[in-house]
Amino acid sequence: MKLMSLKQFEKKSKETLIRFITKQLRKKSRKTLARLAYHMTKAKLPRLKTIKQKALPRRKTKRKKMTKAEKNKFLARLNKGRIKAGLKPIRAKR
Length: 94
Description:
55% helix, mainly alpha, elongated, 4 helices
């Protein structure tokens, strides 16, 4: 069977097209026909609209800067977890 273009199919009568489609459908397996039927019914359902999430409000107050001792304590706690995970520790900037 040769591949036919869309224009060639459009020239054929409705009865011939129906005959052609039923012949092709008989060749297909039950599983593919079930999948086709499912997709045909699904196509008739309305589309689900995705809800756009609003941007979160910006921070109104500035973060409090850490003192050197607080920063070292924070980095020590952070690095403890990094070392356990097998990652390199972060060194404090001087």
